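Recap from last week: sequence in, structure out.
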Amino acid sequence: MTKLASHQACRNREIIGCNWCVEGADWYCNSCRLTRTIPNLGSTRNIMLWRRMEEAKRRLLYDLGRLRLPLASRTGEQLAFDILSDEVSPILTGHLSGLITLNLAEADDVERESRRVAFREPYRTLLGHFRHEIGHFYWDLLVDGTTFQAPFKLIFGDQAQDYQAAINTYYSRADRSYDRSGFISEYATSHPWEDWAETFAHFLHIVSTLDSLAGLPLSLDERARQTLTDPYLESDFEALLALWMPLARSINELNRSLGMSDAYPFDISPAVKGKLHLVHMAISAFRDQQSLAA
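Predicted structure tokens:
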């Protein structure tokens, strides 16, 4: 029997250009192994879209690794992904008990933009879907049954309200206006769980973008350089926001100069800031607990 090298290319490199390596005797990398179901590869289009899906997933997993968050629930259930095509029947993107289902069509730029316009959303990206759905997974780990459950209820609302009824009410609204001072997006108004998932996604947007900023040839003051040492592990939430706010304005202005839409078409109100802060505290507290237990 031939012994595999300790570090070699993921077997999906030839199919979808996966750029991660495998560890030990595995055929697939730590990212590809989490994909439980893949789309039908008889279509060239499906392969192209699956490639984009896996690229976004690897970026998500990079975020989670930098945040030192586990990929398993308290009971040991491993995070998994189903990437499905709606060629036969409609596929709804969502999360259930650690399984994240993604509609392959969301990797098609034209289809995704069509849905963004239809739902009157200012922002809809493939990576955004991943970051939103993983927020549901981490609510169970970071909030449910912890000391953060009471603050969550105070800030986000009572998650015990009927979820499906709330979602049905949201989609049946004729009036699409909402309290922009209290929510990061319209969809966040549908149910406290969705508010948390939207806010969690935006926290990942912030720390990931700041991490990219750290590698750019820019002149920054000493405090900014300290924050950018590792935005994912920054303990000072105010320092993160102090860098993010002017950066978000700057990238929006740059996009406008190129005739493009705002990269970050959102306002962080005091209420939304408080919600982001709770996400940051919950992640930090979990990480600290894990360090003490190690």
